[in-house]
Amino acid sequence: MHRLFHKVIAVAAVGVTLTALLGGQASAVAAAIGGPFELVDHTGQTVTEDSFDDRYLLVFFGYAWCPDVCPTELLIIGQAVDELGELGDEVQPLFITVDPARDTVQALAEYVPSFHPRLVGLTGSEEQIRDAAQAYRVYYRLNEPDEDGNYLVDHTSYVYFMDPDGDYVTHFVFGQGPEKMAEIMRRHLD
Fold this sequence. Notes:
Layout: H1 2-22, E1 38-41, E2 46-48, E3 56-62, H2 69-83, E4 91-97, H3 105-111, E5 120-123, H4 126-135, E6 140-142, E7 153-155, E8 159-162, E9 168-172, H5 178-189
Helix pairs in contact: 2-5
């Protein structure tokens, strides 16, 4: 219980710090969110932040073995993109794993289509994932495996909305509904 308490406090501290720094709006501080990356998508193609045809990006870090937060948030992301109607074509949803050892290209190819047909799953080496997570100020930590080798990963659960130039626009917190997410994105897309 004591260890769980420290994990919750660490994740909460990251969230409070980001929320205080970002305030939900782009600013000089917020410009530090995002950056270049080179990863492999769920079809085996190498991609960078410039690979998405000048679209807005919805960027979420998580892992396919996640029992609750990740599948819930990916479902909301897909619903929000659909809620935008034709404007949704201007938004590319990305799921970047924080567990590249298990989230291989094949694993992501089986996982991401369940949430949205345009969702792109991204993986890479541990170093590539660490670099991408650092660029987005994402916290993650692998927990000790159980006797069967299964483990959970603590991670930040923000969804970042980035403009076509790769600049931070805003972020969404876990549990924000797809309607609210679409409403906020629509203001920037119109």
